[in-house]
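Hi L., both proteins are below.
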Amino acid sequence: MGGDHKEGVQEVEWRIKVEEDNETLKRALVGCMWAVTAGVVLKLCKFVKKAWELGVNDPRKFIHCLKVGVALSSVSLFYYLKPLYDGVGGNAMWAIMTVVVVFEYTAGATICKTVNRICGTSLAGFLAIGVHWVASRAGDQLEPVIVGVSLFLLASAATFSRFIPTIKARFDYGALIFILTFSLVSVSGYRVDELLVMAQYRMSTILIGSSLCIIVSMILCPVWAGQELYVLVTGNLDKLANSLQGCVTQYFDCTEAPEAENEEETRKQLLGYKCVLSSKATEESMANLARWEPAHGRFNFRHPWSQYVKIGASMRSCASCIDALIGCINSDNETSDDMKRNMSSISMKVGTNSARVIRELATTIRNMKKSSKVDILVTEMNSAAQELRNFLNSYPNMLSPSSQNNAKDTQTEAASSSDDDDDVAAKREIPLIEIIQVVTVASLLIETVTRVEGIVEAVEELSDLAKFQPPLCVKSKQHTTDNKFSPIQQKDDEAMRTLQIV
C-alpha cells in the first residue's frame, strides 16, 4: 500500500509540473504574439504619421491622388455603361491602362507622356498595318519572313534612337511605346483577320484615356513643371547667398558666438549650397517637361526654360567654390591671428557684397523685373574684391629667397630702424604654414566673385529672353525728361540747395 501511495503522489506531481510548463509556454507564446503585434502597430503608426506629415507639408500630393482617382473613375464608365462599352468594344481596358501609365504629378509630365504615347502608338500602328498588308500580298511562306525582318529592323532602330540625347530627353517614352505597339500589332496581326478594326478600337481608347488625363491634370489644381523649376532656381539662389555669407562670417567674425537655439538653423543655412550641387538632374528634368506645357501664369508660350538650366550650372560652379571654401575653413592647419584680423573686414565685405548680388538676382527672377541695383551691387562687389586683391599683393612675403639672403642685414639694421620697421620685421617672421589657410580663403573669395559674375550674366540673358519688365528707375528718368530738366541742371539745383542749407 505504501508503494502505491508513493507512485500516486509522483504521478500527481508529474501532472502538476507538466500543466505548469504548458501554462508557462502558453504565456510565453501569448507574450511574444503581443510583442510582435505591438511592434507592428507601432511601426504602422509611425508610417501613418510620416505619411500625414508628408501630405500636410505639401497638400498638392494629396490632391494628385484624388485627381488620379477621378480620372480612373471617369474612364471606368466605359465598362460600366453599356452604350459606351458597345462603342469601344472589349478594348476599354486600354483606356484604363493609359490613365494608369500616363497620369503624372506635373501637367508637363502628363502632357509629355500623353503626346509620346499617342504619337508612338499611331506611328507604330500605321507601320504595322502597312507591313501586314505587304506581307499578306507576298504569300503564306514569305509573310512570316517579312513580318519578322520588319520587326527586327524597326525595333533595333527605335532602340538605338533611345541613346540619342535629344530623343532620350523628350521622346524616350514614345520610342518605348513604338516598340511595344509595333510588336503587338505585327505579331498578333499574323493570326487576326480584322487587324484594322482592332487597331481602330485600341487607338480610340488610348485617345480617350489620354485626353481625359490632360483635362483632369490641367483643370483640377494643376501642378506646373515650369513653376516648380522657377521656385527651385530662386530658392537655390537664396540658399547660395546664405551659405556664402554664413561661411565668411563664421570664419572671420569670432566675436559673437551663436546661441544654442540658432545653432541648428545656422548650420542648415551654411550647408544650403549642397542643395544647389545636387539639383542638376531635377533642373534638367523640369526644364524638359516645362517645354510641353502651354502658357500659364506669368510664363508665356515658348518661355526660355533652358536658360534656367544655364543659371543652375552657374550656381553649381559658385557652389563648388563655396564647398572648397568651407573645406579650407574646416581644415586643421593653424592660422595667423594677426593676418586673419587684418583681413577680416575686407573679406567680410567681399562676402556680404557677393551675397547681396545673389539675393538681388533671386529677387529679379522672382518679380520678373529687371533690377536697377544689380549694376551698383556688382560694382561694389568688384571694388571689394579688388581691395582684397591689393591687400594680398601688398602683404610682405618674407619666405622668398631674397628676404632669406638679406636676413642678416635686417638684423643689423633692426637696432637703428623705427618702430614701423620693427613691426614689418615681426611680420616677416610668420611661417608660411600659418598664413596659407587664410590666404587660400581670400583667394577662394576672389574666385567666388568671378563666378557670381557668371550668374549675373546668365540672369541678365534670361531677363532679355523672357522680356522682363524694365526697372522703375526708367519711368522716373522718363518723367524727368518730360519736365525738360537735364542731369546737369539737376546737379546744379541740388548743389544750390545744399549751399542754402549750410
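That was the first. Here is the second:
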Amino acid sequence: MAVGLAITSESGQNNGKITLYVVLSCMMAAMGGVIFGYDIGITGGVTSMEPFLKKFFHKVYLKMKLADDKVSNYCVFDSQLLTSFTSSLYVAGLVTSFFASYITKAFGRKPSIVVGGAAFLAGTGLGGAAFNVYMLIVGRLLLGVGVGFANQAVPLYLSEMALPRLRGAINNGFQLSIGIGALSANLINYGTEKIEGGWGWRMSLAMAAVPASVLTLGALFLPETPNSVIQRSHDKQKAKLMLQRIRGMEDVQAELDDLIKASSPSKTNNKQSLKLILKGRYRPQLVMALAIPFFQQVTGINVIAFYAPLLFRTIGLGESASLLSAVMTGVVGTGSTFISMFVVDKLGRRTLFMIGGIQMFVSQCIVGGIMALHLKDHGGLSKGYAFVVLVMICIYVAGFGWSWGPLGWLVPSEIFPLEIRSAGQSITVAVSFIFTFIVAQTFLSMLCHFRSGIFFFFGGWVVVMTTFVYYFLPETKSVPLEQMEKVWQEHWFWKRIVGEVSDRQHKGEI
C-alpha cells in the first residue's frame, strides 16, 4: 500500500512515494534508538536513588549523607565504581561494533538489528534481578552488545530505506527515538522513586525489556534494504522488486542502476572494507567518521544524559525534584529533535550545526558562570539561580537536539559509498563508544576537580567543532547516496585531496 506524495530528486529522477511500508519499517527499526535512549535515561535516574546507592554503592551513599558537613558539593558522587556501572556498556559496545560490521555487511542489516534486540533483552533481565554490583555490570555488558549492534545497523537501515529528499527526516527519527527512550526512562524513574520499600530501581531497570522485546520481535518482520540485497547476493531482480515495493511505483530502473553501479567496487572488496577505507580516495569520509562522533561526545551532552539527576542534586535540588528536572530536559530534547526532522531537509545540515553550536556554547558559559560565582563547596544554589541553571540546561539540550544529536548519526550514515558503508559506520560507532566511555568514566571525577570549569571545558570544544563544520563539512541534503562523492569533489578543501587521488588513479599510479 502506498500513500503520500511523489518525490523528485534534484537530478530529475523520480524517487517514488512515501509508502506506508517504508514508514512502518523505519518506525520498527528506530526502536533500536529507543533502547539506547532508555538505557541512558534510566542510568542517570537510578544512580541518584538513595536505595540503589545504599545497596550497591554504599560509600557514595555515605558521602551524600555527609555532604553538608565534610564533602564538597562537587565531589559527592566521585566514585570510579559508580562510573564503571555507567560506562561498562560502552566498552562492550565498542568491541561489539566491529563484529556487527561484519554481520551487517555479510548477512544484512536485519540480522544485526535482531541480535541487538536479543542481547539487550538478556541484559535487561540481569540488571532487574541483580543482587550485587557484579551482576549489574555483567548486565550492562550485555546491554552494550545490544546497543553496539543496534547503533551500527539502524542508522544504515534508515538511510538506505529513505527517499533522498527525506533522508534527513527519516534518519533523524533514530535520534528522536533515543530522545523518546530517554524521556520514557526519566518519567519511569520519577514514578518508581516514590515506590515504598526501596525497590523502585528494579522496575526502572526491568522496564527496558518492553522496547527490547518490541525491537527483537518486530525486527524479524523487517524487509532487507535493496542496497544490502545488491551488496550481498547481487540479485538484481530481488532488489528491483524491493525497490518497487518501498517506493510505491513500477519505474525504479534509474535508482536500481545507481545501486548496481555503486555496488560494483564492493564485489571485489567485500572482506577488505576496513582496509579500503584507509585509501586516499576515502580520506574525507574517514576524517568525518572519526571527527563527528568525537565531537558529538565532547559537546558534554552525556554529562546531562547520564548524570542530570546527580547534577541537579549537586546544585541543591532534592531527589524527587532532581528526577522531575531530568524529565523536563528530556521533554525539551525530544521536542527539539522532532522539530529537526521537519527542517533538516529544508535548512540543511550545516545551518543546524551552526545554530546548535552557538546555542550550546552560550548556555554552557552561563551555567558555568553561575556555578562559579554562586555554588560553593557546601550548601546549594538559591531557588532563583537553580531555576536559571535549569532553563540554560534546557536551552543547551534543545541546541543539541536539533544539531549534533540527530546530525551526529545522520551525516556519517549518508556520506559513505556502499563498498565502505558498513566499515565506516562501525568506525563511527566505535569512536562514539570510546569517547562516551571516557566521558562517562571521568565526568564525576572531573566535576570534583574542575568544579564549574567543566562547563567551560565542554564549551571550548563546542567552539572547535562548530568551526570544523563551517570549514570542512560540505552540505549533503538532497544528494542521493549513490552520488555523494560529488560533494567532496566540489568542496574547497577536500577537492584537493580527492582530485589528486583521482588524477593518480587515472594515471595508474595507485
